[in-house]
Amino acid sequence: MGGMKRSELPYSPLDVIRSSPAHTILASLIDATGLQNEFMNASEVFAPTDDALRPIADALAQDLELKEDEKAEIVRLLLHRHRIRNPIKFSGLYCTEDGGAQAFVDTEGSDVPKRVHGIKVDATVPTQLGRVHVLSQPIIPEEPTFCSM
């Protein structure tokens, strides 16, 4: 933490995202889908930058055939892969407590993820509740895989 007391850190991952000029699209998507609590209370958040999310946001905005609720569901699925609450760490996996969504994480021998689903983690920002890992690409949802406990 570089000499900072835990109480001096931003409170939640959502606070970091909302205060970052590089994450305005992510903050807007979180608010638009009502996922504020999930991102506030997440232990690990993988936060793609505006440059990474802009093509997806632009494509959704221009798609006239999708209904608004369909667009919202696409965004919810996308955002689901970008946050984990109370991860249980297995070799190479971060799993949710209930064995649900997982992230394939490469820590390269440290406590901090260096890659998630093969995407380089550009920076990690600690918060009082967890960590935000900055990504230059979004994690594109695939078929859900589940952790076996």
Describe this structure in words.
With 149 residues, the chain is α+β, with helices and mostly antiparallel strands. It has a single domain (6-135), classed as FAS1 domain. The protein has five helices and eight strands, in the order αααβααβββββββ. An eight-stranded mixed β-sheet has the order 2-1-8-7-6-5-4-3. Helix 2 crosses helix 5. The longest helix has 13 residues, at 50-62. The radius of gyration is 15 Å and the shape is globular.
What are the SSEs and their pairings?
Layout: H1 13-19, H2 24-33, H3 36-40, E1 44-48, H4 50-62, H5 68-80, E2 83-84, E3 88-90, E4 93-95, E5 102-106, E6 115-116, E7 119-126, E8 131-135
Parallel strand pairs: 1-8
Antiparallel strand pairs: 1-2, 3-4, 4-5, 5-6, 6-7, 7-8
Using the coordinates shown, work out and report the CATH topology.
FAS1 domain
Distance between the termini: 32 Å
Strand order of the largest sheet: 2-1-8-7-6-5-4-3
What proportion strand? 15-25%
Number of helices: 5
